[in-house]
Amino acid sequence: MTNPVAAVPRTIVSLGFGAARVPVDLLAQVTGNGNNREWGPTLAFDSVEATVRGLLGSLLGDPELAAQGHVKEARVQQRTEAAERDRAADARREVADDRLQRRREEDQQAREQVRDQAQEQKQQLEEERRQRAQEAEEREEKRKEQARRDEQKAQERADEHAQEAHRTRVAEESEAVAAEREAAERKAEALELAEAADEARRRR
Questions:
Q1: How far apart are CA 76 and CA 37, in angstroms?
Q2: What is the pTM of this model?
Q3: Range scoring the smallest mean pLDDT among 5-14, 35-44, 151-160
């Protein structure tokens, strides 16, 4: 049977904590934690209430009040552990999110590095191609210049040969003319001698 005398302290405690809870509940509503039974200030208030009920129950010899304190304390402990698990899960999620973000950033950096390397390699290949084309053009120009020089030298040698042939031909013609003149002179001398001999014979 319930002791009506013992019920008085329980009622006072309930009324006192009910009044004291009002500011905590208002603060929870303002901060958006009205339905969050694992919110820190709410847990702290419930823990204090559980301790007070347990102590008063023991001091007043009210087992029901003490039991209320023990039950509330057990519930506070459960909620506290649940809050700790949630915080640990949030921490793990935060770590996982950070790792994921870092991995994405590293992947992005790797992609940018690959793109930069590809662009640099493309520019290097283009520069090498341009340089090879320029060198080939220079070699072709040198080849043409050498061909022009060789042609000029060949023409000069041909001109020299032609001049030498002309000089040889002129010299040969001059010698032939001189030989003919000499032969003509000898023939004229022979005729004169023959005529002189005939004249001498006639005079005899």
A1: 9
A2: 0.39
A3: 5-14
Q: Which two tokens stand for residue 92?
A: 């793990």
Q: Which of 15, 82, 80 is nearest to 52 (CA)?
A: 15
Q: How many helices (H) and strands (E) does the chain have?
A: 3, 0
Alpha helix ranges (H) inside the chain:
4-30, 40-60, 63-203
How large is the average pLDDT for residues 82-90? 82
Q: Is the pLDDT of residue 58 over 50?
A: yes
Please say whether the beta carbons of 55 and 68 come within 8 A: no
Asked if residue 80 lies in contact with residue 26, where contact means CB atoms within 8 angstroms, the answer is no
**What letter does residue 39 receive in the DSSP assignment?**
-
Within 42-129, strands assigned E span: none
Query: Tens digits of per-residue pLDDT, 175-192?
Result: 888 888 888 888 888 888
Residue 77 near residue 88 (C-beta atoms within 8 A): no
CA distance 136 to 121: 22
Angstrom distances, CA of residue 88 to CA of 46, 82, 91, 95? 22, 10, 5, 10
Residue 184 amino acid letter: A
